[in-house]
Structures are given as C-alpha cells and as structure tokens.
Amino acid sequence: MPCLNLFTNVSLDEIDISSILSEASKSVANIIGKPESYVMIVVKGSIPMLFGGTDEPTAYGELVSIGGLNPDTNKKLSAAISTILETKLSVPKSRFYLKFHDTKRSDFGWNGTTF
C-alpha cells in the first residue's frame, strides 16, 4: 500500500501530469517490490513553498508504506523520485526533500477496515 504524496510550488497547468503519476507509480512499485495495483501517487502543484530562502522550483514528498522501506530502498526511491521531478518539473534534486514512513498494518485504513 505505498502512498507517495508530492507537493510542489510549480504550476501543473502545462505539465503532462499523467506521465509523472505513471513513472512515479512504476518506480515505487518496482523499488519497494510491491504490486503497482496497491500504489497510490498524489501530486499537488502551485503550493506556496519557500526553500533556502527562495521560491524557485522546489518540492516536498512523503512516502508511507507497510514494510518494504530500509536505508538502501529509501536511497533508491529518493534517486528515482527526484529524477522524475527534475526532468518533468525542473525541480533540482537539491531542492527536494522526501520523508519515509514505515507504518504498521493496523495504522492504515483500506476497503472499510485496516490492512
């Protein structure tokens, strides 16, 4: 059930958002080793954000997963997601933070119950 939430100050009006969603979904599933049918990707643009004292393109993300996260996997995820943001939204890798949450099944709801 990996869920990736991405927030950026970049406007998504002229962006092919479906390619970002698709690439991120495939990357998360492949790197974590979970079926893509369980992966959720959320991207919100035009969020007022400041990083390093400037409002140049920046982004913040949080990835929640029930298992599958560890230091090696997190490095791979950070590299993959930052590359997508850099190529698709012109957000430099140095202006992107990604926070990882490894959660318990009982702490995540789905299908009217918990995992």
Automatic annotation (TrEMBL):
A Pfam family assignment: MIF
GO molecular function: phenylpyruvate tautomerase activity
GO CC terms in record: extracellular space
Family membership: Belongs to the MIF family.
Name of the protein in question: Macrophage migration inhibitory factor homolog
Species this chain originates from: Papaver atlanticum
